[in-house]
Design brief:
The protein is built from ten helices and eight strands. The chain is α/β, with parallel strands linked by helices and 281 residues long. The chain has an eight-stranded parallel beta barrel with strand order 1-2-3-4-5-6-7-8, surrounded by five helices. Strand 6, helix 6 and strand 7 form a beta-alpha-beta unit.
Length: 281
């Protein structure tokens, strides 16, 4: 793994002006911790294309933190992707998170000229050469739509060999699963850094629903303790903070090349973990 660790924060583009102002305020607060980069998500089927573009350019240009747009091949033609790549290249954006992307509701299979993230990585490389540092997604607990763990590992290795520079994982709460995944893909020839994605625990019901939907396991002992707290948000957040901090310590002690925080456009939950870990700023 890389000897130099990197730390980053992820945002999602908002629908309202008030939400956008909150996002910018959060980003400015997090910028004080000197992260390596921000990233900004891309809605299912490109549904937030313009908002993602505008948010990325504002974070990069005004907040002054290098910002990586998510780019999806679901629903986008090569011409549309080429236009976005040109816009980002012209704006000086240097990093992209390349994903197959979520399918919009009712869409049974990927649309667009590119069907897989590996094809998107190849397309970006063919269009822009080495301009972009390309991130891809990793699923330590297996992609929810994969046919098998072995098949998922092979697809991940194909993405990396297509030209990706590094990967960010789906969030998880079991460090051993991450280390097992890394060990397996190393045997498949993947040498690039695989950075753990970290989800702070702040709301049990939302986390449980999202975890069930995306295939991220919420361990039974954590689920049962969170259930026991009921509506006691203070206890949920304190317990969640300790669980995630302990996991991050294990990840970093075990050689993980950094951490990528899924902020949900909030600063404090991620910063609580950051400060508990004594990370640099």
């Amino acid at each position: 793994m890389s000897q130099e660790r990197r730390y980053s924060f992820e945002f999602f583009p908002t629908k309202t002006e008030a939400g956008h102002e909150k996002l910018l305020a959060t980003a400015r607060q997090l910028a004080g911790y000197r992260p390596d980069f921000f990233s900004c998500t891309y809605g299912a089927g490109g549904s937030t294309r313009d908002r993602t573009l505008n948010t990325v350019l504002q974070l990069d240009g005004e907040v002054k933190v290098p910002t990586a747009p998510h780019l999806s091949c679901v629903g986008d033609s090569k011409a549309e992707l080429r236009s976005l790549l040109n816009t980002y290249q012209d704006a000086g954006i240097k990093r992209i998170v390349a994903l197959r992307g979520d399918l919009p509701s009712g869409m049974g299979m990927a649309s667009g000229e590119l069907r897989h993230a590996s094809e998107l990585v190849e397309f970006i490389r063919a269009e822009t050469g080495a301009h972009f540092h390309i991130e891809v997604a990793a699923y330590p607990e297996m992609h929810p739509q994969a046919r098998s763990f072995e098949d998922d590992l092979a697809h991940f290795a194909a993405k990396m060999k297509a030209g990706a520079d590094s990967a960010i994982t789906q969030y998880f709460f079991n460090a051993d699963g991450y280390f097992h995944f890394v060990e397996r893909v190393r045997k498949l020839g993947v040498e690039q850094p695989i950075v753990p994605g970290i989800m702070p625990i702040t709301n049990y019901s939302k986390l449980a629903r999202f975890s069930d939907a995306c295939g991220a396991e919420l361990p039974r002992w954590v689920r049962k303790q969170l259930e026991a707290y009921g509506d006691d948000l203070e206890s949920i957040q304190a317990f969640g903070e300790q669980v995630v901090t302990d996991m991050c310590e294990k990840l970093l002690d075990g050689g993980a090349p950094g951490l990528h925080f899924y902020t949900l456009n909030q600063a404090e939950p991620s910063l609580a973990i950051w400060n508990n870990l004594g990370l640099p700023r």
